[in-house]
């Protein structure tokens, strides 16, 4: 449709001025936008209040919508299943066979672990989550990977807490509103997690790539010891993430590391657990030695 | 095409002698629809990669192409501000990009007043591609480090989603002009 010619509204002074100020406002808005952008890129924490208020205000509706999510995604999986069922059944059968073997190994390990812990008189650390809540949204159209959960400061969530699903680590809390909080997902290009290989403890970092995968970079150089299928867990260095949480599994190798797929797809998880802040305990103070007294 | 609606409902949107469109509805619908599109990050899709098209931006372009001049040229910054609150981009990113888009679309309107839908789609595709690419650069400036390859599926989805969005805008345009106010 052709535009009504708004630019030359005739002899009406009022219409002419209105038009003129419209353009002035548009350009002024542009300039203000540039200023906002400079402020917010220079300081990532700027405008946190505005964003959390916005997230809090939409949290109730988003919580309702999150309940419907599992159902709607199952529909798509059902449709896709018609095309992939044969290959998938074969794969699943193979995995079950492998899984049985692994399970037996695990049982042995658990038993050994319990025995060793009993020897050291260690108790299982208190790992109860701060709160278990729903994922209620994610920035699905921006290239940054943030998600929103339906619990905030009122439920005891604090900045820096790790968030995990039953399958593994999802991300970490970076902004907290009163009843919602924003996570930095593992796959965000800004996220970097100290990790190790589950089997032998080779150290490295898992950096998000922004496309749903993470890049594993090893701390050591030389021959790349990783293989597709290796499980990657948090190493706990740095003190943000609890050690030993599953993060990702390697899918392909790169010259200096590997590409890995996070184990817990945030789209598939409905409920997540917010974990208490993990701080490494300070090394035990040296025991005071018995001072030899002068007298025998 | 046979119309399955009952006749009372079919008459609903038709012009009538003593009814006009409600000005509130007629003016508020476009703004509300774009803001609803901006709320898409709270929709029940949790993605580990950017896959959904930027619905707010698609709707803005759709309105501007269906009804040029309905939005004032400065509409980019208030709507962009709202979008920034939810999109996860650094605040100010959509303020700038949407303002630029509105000014550019306004210019194109006056330069090429007669367009078909194919040309509209091509123009919208160019705007979407540019918008997503610049938004990525801005996000990277603020601390991300994603490469542009990440965007390719999203650009494809957004370009294909544009006709559907334009259709939705058309429906909303019919809705906002329903004559419900008696004179």
Question: What shape does the CA trace of chain B take?
Answer: elongated
In CATH, the topology of one domain in chain A is named Thrombin, subunit H
**Could you give the distance between the termini of chain B?**
34 Å
- Main β-sheet of chain A, in a few words? 6 strands, antiparallel, barrel
What is the H-and-E element order of chain A?
HHEEEEEEEEEEEE
Number of strands of chain A: 12
Mean pLDDT of chain B: 86
**Whole-angstrom Rg of chain A:** 27 Å
How would you state the average pLDDT of chain A, rounded?
A: 78
Query: CATH superfamily name of one domain in chain A?
Result: Rod shape-determining protein MreC, domain 1
Low-pLDDT parts of chain B are none
Can you characterise this structure?
The complex is a heterodimer of chains A (296) and B (183). By secondary structure, chain A is of the alpha+beta class. Chain A has a domain at 131-274: Rod shape-determining protein MreC, domain 1 (Thrombin, subunit H, Beta Barrel), CATH 2.40.10. Helices cover 35% and strands 24% of the residues of chain A. Chain A has helices spanning 13-42, 48-120; strands spanning 131-138, 146-149, 162-165, 168-176, 181-185, 192-197, 203-208, 214-218, 231-234, 246-254, 257-262, 271-274. Chain A is elongated and about 90 Å long. Chain B has a two-stranded antiparallel sheet with strand order 1-2. In chain B, 44% of the residues are buried. Chain B is built from seven helices and two strands, in the order αβααααααβ. By secondary structure, chain B is mainly alpha-helical. Chain B has one domain. The chains are: A alpha+beta (296), B mainly alpha (183). Chains A and B meet through helix 1, helix 2, strand 1 and strand 2 of A and helix 4, helix 5 and helix 6 of B.
């Amino acid at each position: 449709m052709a535009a009504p010619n708004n630019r030359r509204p005739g002899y009406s002074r009022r219409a002419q001025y209105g038009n003129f100020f419209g353009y002035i406002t548009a350009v002024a808005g542009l300039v203000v936008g540039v200023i906002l952008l400079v402020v917010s890129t220079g300081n990532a924490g700027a405008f946190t209040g505005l964003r959390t208020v916005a997230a809090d205000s939409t949290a109730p509706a988003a919580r309702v919508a999150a309940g419907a999510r599992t159902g709607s995604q199952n529909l798509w999986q059902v449709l896709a299943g018609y095309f992939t069922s044969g290959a998938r059944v074969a794969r699943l059968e193979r995995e079950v066979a492998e899984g049985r073997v692994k399970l037996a190994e695990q049982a042995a390990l658990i038993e050994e672990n319990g025995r060793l812990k009993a020897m050291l008189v260690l108790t299982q650390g208190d790992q109860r989550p701060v709160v278990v809540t729903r994922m209620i949204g994610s920035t699905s159209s921006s290239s940054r990977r943030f998600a929103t959960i339906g619990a905030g400061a009122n439920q005891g969530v604090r900045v820096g807490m790790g968030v995990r699903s039953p399958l593994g680590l999802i991300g970490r809390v970076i902004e907290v509103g009163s009843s919602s909080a924003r996570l930095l997902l593992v796959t965000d290009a800004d996220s970097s997690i100290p990790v190790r290989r589950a089997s032998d403890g080779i150290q490295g970092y898992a950096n998000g790539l922004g496309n749903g995968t993470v890049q594993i970079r090893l701390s050591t150089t030389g021959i790349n010891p990783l293989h597709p299928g290796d499980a990657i867990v948090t190493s706990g260095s740095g003190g943000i993430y609890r050690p030993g949480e599953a993060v990702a599994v390697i899918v392909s190798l790169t010259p200096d590391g590997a590409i890995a797929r996070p184990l817990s797809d945030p789209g598939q998880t409905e409920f997540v657990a917010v974990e208490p802040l993990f701080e490494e305990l300070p090394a035990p103070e040296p025991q005071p030695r018995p001072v030899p007294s002068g007298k025998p | 095409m046979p119309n399955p609606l009952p006749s009372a409902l079919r008459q609903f949107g038709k012009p009538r002698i003593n009814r006009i469109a409600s000005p509130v509805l007629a003016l508020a619908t476009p703004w509300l629809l774009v803001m609803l599109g901006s709320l898409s990050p709270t929709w029940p899709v949790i993605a580990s990669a950017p896959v959904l098209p930027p619905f707010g931006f698609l709707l803005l372009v759709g309105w501007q192409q269906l009804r040029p001049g309905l939005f004032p040229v400065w509409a980019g910054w208030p709507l962009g501000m709202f979008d920034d609150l939810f999109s996860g981009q650094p605040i100010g990113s959509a303020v700038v990009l949407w303002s630029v888009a509105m000014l550019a679309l306004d210019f194109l309107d006056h330069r090429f007043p007669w367009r078909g839908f194919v040309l509209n789609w091509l123009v919208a595709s160019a705007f979407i591609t540019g918008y997503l690419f610049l938004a990525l650069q801005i996000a990277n400036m603020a601390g991300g480090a994603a490469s542009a390859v990440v965007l390719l599926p999203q650009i494809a989805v957004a370009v294909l989603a544009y006709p559907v969005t334009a259709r939705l805008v058309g429906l909303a345009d019919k809705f906002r002009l329903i004559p419900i106010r008696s004179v």
